[in-house]
Sequence to fold (590 residues):
Amino acid sequence: MSSAGIKKSRQRAAAPVVSRAAGYLAEAPGREAGGESSAAPRRESVPAKGLDGGHRHFCTIYENSDDLLRHCAALTRPRELGGMRWLGLFDSAAHRDKLAPLCREAGRPGTISSAEDLFAVRAAPVCVTTVVNKLQALCEGAVGEGFRGLLVLIDMSWMLEAPSGLANLGELEAGLHALAEKAPLKIVCLYSRELFPANVLLDALRTHPALLDAGEARRNPYFLPPPVFLSGDAAKKLDWWLGVLRESGAQPAAGPEAATVLRGDGFAAPPAAISAAKPVIAPVPATGEEPSARRRPPAQATMGPVRPNFEIDQFGEPAVQGQPLKRWKIRCLGELRIYSHDGNPVAWNRCSGATYKTKTLFAFLLQRGAKGASVEETADLLWPEASDLNQSLNRLYHTVHCLRMALSPELSSSRHSPYLVSRNRRYYLTLPEGTWVDVPVFEQFCRQGEQLLKAGEIEQSLTCHMAAERLYSGALFADIPVEYVEDPERDWCWSQRFWLEEIYLKMLACTAAIHRAMNDPKLALSYCERVLRVDPCAESAHREAMRAYHMIGRLDALERQYRLCRESLKRFEDREPARETANLARQLMG
Fold:
């Protein structure tokens, strides 16, 4: 079917509902009787020496809710506090309820709140300065009340509700680390292994000098001081680690007291050059239903295992050697947005030129990755109607100049741009090492949610799917003009856009099934509507809707839903419903 036909069909309104996508649910599972244990947490998890190793900024990766509660109970014992007050920030109401009794025990002076109440993380983009200033004020208040300082336990799961928190994880941890170094404050950041993708947890390791694990505080040999972690130079990061290894000799990294290379503040004596950043987040393959014929990309497009090229490596050598590259955050879902290391968005209109062509050039080169693109094919993409190649090349050179100045406004000449380089008549993007891109993170949360659902962890699966939903702010490069996206000669974007939308719709269908399993059929129906609004032929959504209507006793609506399913399939795909759909309808209506 033509792309025009696809667009027309997507504009059709559809009735409410959605079912599980393939690979997610056959019948939505329920929780086992008993749920989570409510027994009092054990208090032997972390020994008394746990917080006395000279470190002030710790990371804990916990396995489940009970593990989290055991850690918190152990860390707030009187001998661990040592005269400090403690503050727990937990956005899960269940966690707050279970930890509340600790605040009432003698010798455990503390309070429990949430990151949302303290920092308003959902209302606006996360501001590191705001977080640091509020924690500093609370620390000063504790000292003013006669305490030796403040111990802060932060469950970092709040970041799942704030995409800007995920994007600025490194900056946030750097701010917390700097605050802990200068104030009478100890901070323990708690990360859920169930909820966070592995690459996020690796970043958590790199931003903490000590890890609370297996009942003791361990020196973290993978720690990078904030100036090193936040820089965009991989060579400087390597220099740091090599320097640590050379100075530590053959000594094992058994703990703070065993590492002679550590200063009292937990830092290793740094090598001469410091400047590096976190590793790139690579995409995680995700499985999905075979897309319906009606919604396939144009026939000329190359389908199959086409993958977005978001393995963000350094795609080329910087034009100016030695010039530091500072990490970016790139939002590709929805409108294309780039944020510099200080959080300011890139201004695309710094030069006189067509902004949409400048953005298209960036998106095209981002997708091409390490292969780059020749000047001829790039010019042909942006000016396909040009009859004179020299004319289109001159226009391309101007657009390249505009993009370079947008990415490096401080440069006096665009030729010195470290981000867009030219070599052998090909253009390459050279992104700062550690650049954060939303697409791989979206994929990872979808996959994490699916794995948790298969394991029967419904609530945790819902948390991951909600995080993915917040990241998906629209179609891939939604503001790139359609004439560039649907290029019949080079499928540089259309298949990827289609593929990511399939993952998104599958995720919404799964979320609907989870809400039905949690006895909220009305919310399940709202998710079904969202799927069918985009794809009226999504049988999984129709099936889930029928189940939800059956749950609330709306047999008339169930029959209408099945009728709508048949009509949509006949109109757009000229076929009857699948056997699974027909059998389910007979079973529910019988």
